[in-house]
Amino acid sequence: MNYQKILDQIKEEVLPLSGKGKVADYIPALAKIPSDKFGIAITTLDGKTIKVGDAEEPFSIQSISKVFTFAMAFKLMGEKLWNRVGVEPSGNPFNSLVQLEHENGIPRNPFINAGALVITDFLLTSSFNPKKSILDFIRKISSNENINFNFDIAKSEKEHGYRNYALANFMKSYNNIFSDPEELLDVYFHHCSLEMSCVDLSKSILFLANHGVIPSSKEKVLSKSQAKRTNSLMMTCGMYDASGDFAFRVGIPGKSGVGGGIVAVIPGELSICVWSPELDKFGNSLKGVKALELFTTITGMSVF
Amino acid sequence: MNYQKILDQIKEEVLPLSGKGKVADYIPALAKIPSDKFGIAITTLDGKTIKVGDAEEPFSIQSISKVFTFAMAFKLMGEKLWNRVGVEPSGNPFNSLVQLEHENGIPRNPFINAGALVITDFLLTSSFNPKKSILDFIRKISSNENINFNFDIAKSEKEHGYRNYALANFMKSYNNIFSDPEELLDVYFHHCSLEMSCVDLSKSILFLANHGVIPSSKEKVLSKSQAKRTNSLMMTCGMYDASGDFAFRVGIPGKSGVGGGIVAVIPGELSICVWSPELDKFGNSLKGVKALELFTTITGMSVF
Amino acid sequence: MNYQKILDQIKEEVLPLSGKGKVADYIPALAKIPSDKFGIAITTLDGKTIKVGDAEEPFSIQSISKVFTFAMAFKLMGEKLWNRVGVEPSGNPFNSLVQLEHENGIPRNPFINAGALVITDFLLTSSFNPKKSILDFIRKISSNENINFNFDIAKSEKEHGYRNYALANFMKSYNNIFSDPEELLDVYFHHCSLEMSCVDLSKSILFLANHGVIPSSKEKVLSKSQAKRTNSLMMTCGMYDASGDFAFRVGIPGKSGVGGGIVAVIPGELSICVWSPELDKFGNSLKGVKALELFTTITGMSVF
Amino acid sequence: MNYQKILDQIKEEVLPLSGKGKVADYIPALAKIPSDKFGIAITTLDGKTIKVGDAEEPFSIQSISKVFTFAMAFKLMGEKLWNRVGVEPSGNPFNSLVQLEHENGIPRNPFINAGALVITDFLLTSSFNPKKSILDFIRKISSNENINFNFDIAKSEKEHGYRNYALANFMKSYNNIFSDPEELLDVYFHHCSLEMSCVDLSKSILFLANHGVIPSSKEKVLSKSQAKRTNSLMMTCGMYDASGDFAFRVGIPGKSGVGGGIVAVIPGELSICVWSPELDKFGNSLKGVKALELFTTITGMSVF
Is residue B51 annotated as part of the catalytic site, yes or no? Predict the structure, then answer.
């Protein structure tokens, strides 16, 4: 398949969507990103990377980092994770807190904020230097030693992150957070602030298209069963409250971030990352979702 | 792959789960089914059917019928459906009514009761004899002219179906039900009362593993895109409030009914139906879910 | 106190509110009432009635009827009522159904629709002719043999009352409705359709200002304790979701209806009824609430 | 009326309730209070105090302090308060956070924790030394210079107060908290830790039975209208999720605390305080509620 031609075509086709979404503006550092940035990178199991547009420019990965911290915690804790976080879609944003209250402080899944905080809490209680552990892990799976936090963004998030403080304290009142909320949020905001390019992200996520194994190094990040389960979680819970719609229209497991990035995998084939900062009303990249829909339609590559 | 051997092995392995679930007892006709019934049938794209246990004994398909009525309505109305029903998981049972209230009478998806009532409403408003249309459709896709409603069960459901009456009237107050609630519920309870065997069901669902086309007759039930979308809906919403868990453990699209049946498909490969009346706390067949988990684990055939 | 002068003054002062509310329009019969109707009637314990404006013109009492059916059921059943309905404010409209679901079909209080349906259910199961019993009771306490249902309004309500059908069926699914929903709704819509004037209503409610006894006839409608409890229920639950605001601004027990009427009592002193069809966003008469606020402010007669 | 005899009788009558409730145990300092403590104090408008049992022993007033901080803020800000907090009952505990979320961070009323935090926030933003201001106010209205915080209890609350931290941060995310959450909680936990006796409390609340004026000093704490409104808020929102039940059974405005105290007023007559540490399932003093029910029944003094 001529992926380069397909990516070029997609870039062309999504162009008219410019101006129909809204760049995240809850912190200044995100608000200033030019809204017309657009890039895609694909990495195939045999190690080839195909790209288009701004695919090598680093951006704020935000919630995409939840896949990485989840993979780290899953590897560490195995199925014990599920005592403290669920695997079900969350319904809708409006329910997040009432669900936590109704379900005794156990978040619905690892990809909503509450769940990602529990995952980060696992990393805090099992590492002397969780920020360094996270950085090491990301650098390894993306083969890029230059990846780093954006400390300004982490600081800015912290100054506006009252809702996340509320979640952490609320779960702590149910004894489902063990570390100090202040320290927890510090690590959380840092991993959300990581800056990576589409190329970095497509490489870093490739193990999920390959039964948990990084193809180039043969290193096993997750077991086959764990990789499958991570993919199913991305499928049912990866796109905030539009996960059903993404499964419906795109048909592959994916995870988005408010920085405008979306990573996705086609098991047995390839990994892909799109970046475009304008978001739809659910907080997912507007052009990004459309680009992935075009990709699975053109290639016929959905999992269904 | 030696499917017969695999099915025999699975039958053996799930046996110890006997007595750990609970047969549906909200109507007498379901309560009297022997709890130890167990059957599996597989139908492959090339038309072979492999079976084990009570795979040829008809049982009450209940909510599995929602896949069939949905396919009928999807074929008829296309994407216009989505004005009146969504494609997102529903969160949890507790939310069903509050979500309807919060979302102006638009059900979350076609596989929760409220959504299935809207789908049935489409069939009522587009057919002179909706019960006959449904029967004709099911008989055709299963190649079994003997399939029929169980009129006693339909009557019994009607006498205990106050919650479904509540849902229909509630949506009608939002103008999202056009037909008379009484007539609507009559059709609804009838299609839920259909009796089919595992063999019937695996055959009838095969088109969803084959891009919408019945392999034997080459008849196109749904377009390729529609079939893919139906599968994604089963994946995210097919197993009541354990859809995430089913995706997580089993990893293929499926739909269950309180009669103890579960249908599922592995796109490009086969369709499968399991039947065992003991249910878990979510209303899904306890042995059925386990059997399907074993099947995808043994064959390595998940979509992820 | 010169009540006539006070009522004249209040009529003057609320005039500028004309056009700021909205006449109920969910059924044609209510929508056609002239929006500028306004009346007040006071009846004192010694039997004097003072009135202003359209105080003798009958209007649709709607939810005010819930006080009467409640009083009938309370007299009949005593404290046994509380097994099937609560005495707490309901929070907000949005919660009505989720609360019913969460609390196993037990409505929060007798003055929300769900609770009033349970109360009407008591009357159905304890009277051969509940509609006649209700009519007899109202005619007696108001000393007006001409009071009657408005059959057109009852019919119209029935045709638009899907949400009430939903509530009745939903509670029946929890075994908290014993009669047939169809018959229950018929009685319910009839008692809501009663037509009475401000003078009728102030007379009929006077027993609640007099420890349960009708002053003129000395007939005991409720015990002293029951009368006190009815007043406390009106205080905490009588004004839909603005009960707190009414207690706060007006400070006496009252009950409103979407026909624009509000009845209220000042224990030991008098009963009062205001009518003005324009409603505020909570469904309470806009001028009516203001008139009662002025009345308690001018007379200094709040219970606090 | 022979209040002394009535109090003696009540003390006798509630004795059999011993052991039917549960002393608050979420912090050690409260858990160690002997469960059989019991006291009542009445203060009449003419300045007489009648007491029984442990009425002079100081206890932790907890949420009763919300009435005092509310009165302070109401005096300071007047009706401007209502831009940031409502006057409606909250429905039930389960809803607290979803309501905050649904209503943009505006708490339902000043007597639930979220609302009391907003009230405390007013005090922080209008006083250089809010803890001292609170102490000065309480000492003045109770005529007792020895009243003080219990610093151990304040510290202990802080160590277990994650849910209150969650509430404060959550409201701050809606811009409805202006001060620093850490400082806010410090003041909040301190005013909840105040220790007062039944005698102190009945004296301190007397102005609410006297149109806002302290009878002995003639000092006007609140205007007549403000006092009436404070009483109506206690009536509809003062007893957590049993406010309706308290209005129903007791029929006077009151406010409880988990330390086992309840204050209440009979406007124009007297103020009363009961203390008994065993709580019912709503967190209100079990004997305390019963004692007040007996008091209004025996004296016939309800507001209705």
Answer: no
Going from the C-alpha of B70 to that of each of A223, B67, B109, B234, D234, the distances in angstroms are: 37, 5, 10, 11, 53
Which residues have a Cβ under 8 Å from the Cβ of D136 and sit 6 or more positions away? none
Integer Cα distance of A12 and A29 in angstroms: 28
User: Would you say C192 and C62 are in contact if contact means Cβ atoms under 8 Å apart?
Assistant: yes
Picking from B96, B101, B169, the nearest residue to C165 by CB comes out as B169
**Neighbour count for residue A292 (Cβ, 10 Å):** 26
The H or E element that residue D153 is part of is helix D151-160
Q: Which amino acid is at C268?
A: G
Sign of CA dihedral C287, C293, C294, C296: positive
CB C205 within 8 A of CB C61: no
DSSP-assigned letter for residue A83: G
**Which structure tokens are listed for D269?**
């007559």
Cα–Cα distances (Å) from A25 to A29, A113, C167, D114, in that order, read 8, 18, 43, 28
Instruction: Name the strand (E) or helix (H) holding C121.
Output: helix C113-124
The Cα D283–Cα D38 span in angstroms is 16
Tell me the residues of B at the A interface, defined by beta carbons under 8 Å apart. Answer: 86-92, 94-95, 99, 102, 109, 225, 227-229, 231-233, 235-237, 241-245, 247-249, 251, 253, 267, 297, 302-304
Q: For chain A, what is the largest distance between any 2 Cα atoms, rounded to a whole number of angstroms?
A: 54
CA–CA separation, D99 vs C90, rounded Å?
12
> Looking at the DSSP assignment, which residues form a beta bridge with residue A279?
A22, A285
- Cβ burial of D208 (10 Å; 0-12, 13-18, 19+) is buried
| Torsion from C-alpha of C272, C275, C281, C282, nearest 10 degrees | 40
Whether residue C1 contacts residue C267, with contact meaning beta carbons closer than 8 Å, is answered with: no
Q: What is the ipTM of this complex?
A: 0.93
Neighbours of D218 (CB within 10 A): 8
Interchain contact, C244 vs D95, CB within 8 Å? no
CA distance D205 to D100: 30
**Strand-strand pairing, C261-266 and C270-275:** antiparallel
- Give the ranges where B15-64 is alpha helix by DSSP (H): 28-31
User: Would you call C240 a catalytic residue per the annotation?
Assistant: yes
Q: What 8-state DSSP symbol labels residue D281?
A: T
**Predicted confidence (pLDDT) per residue in C211-232, tens digit:** 999 999 999 999 999 999 999 9
Q: Do D97 and A97 touch (CB under 8 A)?
A: yes
- Tens of each residue's pLDDT in chain B, 304 residues: 899 999 999 999 999 999 999 999 988 889 999 999 999 999 999 999 999 999 999 999 999 999 999 999 999 999 999 999 999 998 665 456 777 877 889 999 999 999 999 999 999 999 999 999 999 999 999 999 999 999 999 999 998 899 999 999 999 999 999 999 999 999 999 999 999 999 999 999 999 999 999 999 999 999 999 999 999 999 999 998 899 999 999 999 999 999 999 999 999 999 999 999 999 999 999 999 999 999 999 999 999 9
Structure tokens at A274: 């799109």
**C→D interface, C-beta within 8 Å:** 86-92, 94-95, 99, 102, 108-109, 225, 227-229, 231-233, 235-237, 241-245, 247-249, 251, 253, 267, 297, 302-304
Given a contact cutoff of 8 angstroms between Cβ atoms, the answer to whether B288 and B274 are in contact is yes
Q: Which amino acid is at B169?
A: N
Using CA atoms, how far apart are residues B193 and B172, in angstroms rounded to an integer? 24
Q: Mutate which of D248, D284, D297 to test chain C, going by most C C-beta atoms within 10 A?
A: D248
Q: Please indicate whether residue D66 is annotated as part of the active site.
A: yes
Helix, strand, or coil (residue D241) = helix
Q: How far is A198 from A196, CA to CA, in rounded Å?
A: 7
Give the residues across from D265 on adjacent strands.
D271
Minimum Cα–Cα distance from D160: chain A residue: A173
